[in-house]
Specification:
- Helix content is about 40%, strand content about 15%.
- It is of the alpha/beta class.
- The strands form three sheets. It has a six-stranded parallel β-sheet with strand order 2-1-3-4-6-5, sandwiched between helices.
- The longest helix is centred in the middle third of the chain and has 18 residues, at about 335-355.
């Protein structure tokens, strides 16, 4: 077969079922063969960067390596921001990229593709020859899996029409689950935990299975510690009565108080970055035990007292065994007073957080609580980047960490829209909620509505439309400057969405919000729904969460 056919067949044999992309002469033959010869699903994006983001959203929800394909030159340069997002978010994906003929130095689309990729933080894996297709493609997938970042598979066009004997790519991923049975670090960790009087367990997306979650919760119960999660660990410990919620810049009042007073943090599968640590305000002067399968993650963002390299679940069970053998009593931190405090907070949260806003607008927290109630609990939740996200992070629940995806690794607006579409493909029969801002939606969301309609995605898009670039509005007002330059023209996103084939609604009041939520419940699940919600830019107080110490 031809090399392009061998690449397509190799994708299929490596387990790729969905391929996102934009056609170009450097990738069109691979895409066509994947769809026609291998019965793969091809999802055509409008923009190459969107194709990469769709693959990343799919990968985060599916828990597998996502795959996209674009052409050489501008096809690759259009993916740069998306590749940076994937590298910073630690998303495993392979991007197939055509490359111009090495003999044609004057080709209009010739560019140093290796150098471009290197600048993004992604990896580069070349197709070395027609005879090494299987080995090179398998290596790209292997690297994406173990390096947790995008890997660009570079395909010179002069190779693609060569004849080869097909070889099935061989991919065996290493078993990485391990626990520390005995070590000085484990001794030190047990000593720290045993002497703690107010420990808190924090878990992140590294707690990536129900078994690991159950083990970490058993550990927390054994030492009688309340639990919290990073934003990307959202969905863990949902049913635990001593779940504090998110740790960090968006912590609720109870979580901020309890984590702030804690004398010990035991952190499973979370990086303790500046958001989870609230700019280290929640980790300062504390003894910290961090558990992660990757040694490189230990203390990377926040200095820790003890770092344990191991699987979170297995290590949690090992620590329980050690504590039992030493007959170490629990801390007593899971007590009736804390339970009452948490119950009171949850009962009064909506009343406390929702505020009145000027006529013609809706409060952001009122919107978040309404959306949380309108959709089934088994859903996928995606956010773009913007000040609106702080309210939704705090309010919207998900069943597990794979059901939450943020487009915030690079803090770039316009990332969440395409990411949500890939997530919706992976979500299958579950609805996908995207919350985005009007600036990001204009930047990249509108054009990709065509993709969402064509793919008949069960996608609910909530545009928190404050008519501004929110972070800049905050920056100007904080310095007592006129925020006029940050304001955006009024746009009717509902009508624009209808023109693309979506169902569109506009919300300017509490009554219209309730009507929109009824429409969410009764929606056509094969037709995307876009809800344009008018927000007063001066009433958005998410900026205070950014500055919280």
């Amino acid at each position: 077969m031809k090399v392009y056919e061998a690449i397509a067949r190799g994708l299929s044999d490596l387990g790729c079922t969905e391929l996102f992309g934009v056609l170009g002469d450097g990738c069109v033959y691979v895409i066509d063969s994947f769809r026609r010869d291998c019965n793969g699903r091809y999802v055509p994006a409008v923009h190459e960067g969107s194709a990469v983001l769709m693959a990343q959203g799919w990968a985060r929800v599916a828990g597998k390596v996502g795959v996209a394909a674009v052409t050489h030159g501008p096809g690759l340069t259009n993916t740069i921001t998306a590749l940076v997002e994937g590298a910073k978010a630690g998303t495993s994906m392979v991007l197939l990229v055509g490359d111009t003929p090495v003999t044609d130095r004057e080709h209009a689309q010739n560019v140093d593709q290796r150098a471009l990729v290197a600048a993004t933080g992604a990896g580069f894996e070349p197709l070395r020859s027609p005879e090494t297709v299987a080995e090179d493609l398998a290596r790209a997938f292997y690297r994406a899996h173990v390096e947790h970042r995008p890997i660009v598979f570079n395909m010179p066009v002069e190779f693609q029409w060569k004849e080869v004997d097909y070889q099935k790519p061989y991919l065996r991923l290493p078993e990485t689950r391990s626990a520390i049975a005995s070590s000085t670090d484990m001794d030190d960790a047990i000593g720290i935990i045993a002497s703690s009087r107010l420990p808190v367990v924090i878990a992140g997306r590294g707690v990536d299975s129900p078994e690991a979650e159950a083990a970490v919760l058993r550990f927390a119960q054994r030492i009688e510690a309340p639990v919290a999660t990073s934003v990307r660990g959202k969905g863990l410990f949902n049913d635990d009565p001593f779940h504090l919620g998110l740790s960090g810049t968006v912590s609720n009042d109870v979580a901020t108080d309890v984590i702030g007073r804690a004398d010990c943090l035991i952190v499973f599968g979370a990086s303790l970055n500046k958001y989870t640590s609230a700019e280290r305000g929640l980790t300062r002067n504390k003894r910290i035990v961090q558990i992660n399968p990757l040694a490189s993650e230990l203390g990377r963002c926040t200095p820790v007292t003890v770092g344990l390299v191991g699987d979170p679940g297995l290590t949690a069970d090992a620590m329980v065994k050690w504590l039992d053998e030493a007959e170490i009593p629990g801390s007593g931190a899971r007590n009736d007073d804390l339970l009452q405090e948490l119950n009171t907070y949850h009962q009064n949260a909506q009343k406390k957080l929702v505020r009145s806003t000027p006529a013609g607008t809706v409060d952001l927290y009122e919107l978040a609580f309404a959306v949380d109630q309108a959709l089934p609990k088994d859903r996928v939740f995606v956010t773009g980047s913007g000040r609106f996200m702080f309210a939704f992070w705090s309010v919207i629940s998900v069943p597990n960490p794979r059901s939450y995806v943020d487009g915030n690794g690079f803090s770039s607006i316009g990332i969440g829209e395409a990411t949500a579409m890939g997530a919706a493909v992976a979500a299958a029969d579950r609805p996908t909620l995207l919350v985005t801002g009007d600036g990001g939606f204009m930047l990249s969301g509108l054009s990709e509505l065509a993709t969402a309609v064509a793919e008949q995605l069960d996608l609910v898009v909530v545009v928190a439309n404050d008519g501004s670039y929110g972070a800049e509005h905050i920056a100007l007002t904080m310095h007592n400057m006129d925020p006029e330059i940050s304001l955006l023209p009024s746009r009717d996103f509902a009508r624009i969405a209808e023109a693309f084939g979506c169902k569109g609604l506009t919300v300017t009041s509490s009554a219209e919000l309730q009507a929109a939520m009824a429409a969410v419940a009764a929606r056509d699940r094969k037709r995307p729904l876009v809800i344009d919600v008018k927000i007063d830019p001066a009433s958005v107080y998410g900026g205070t969460a950014i500055a919280r110490p």
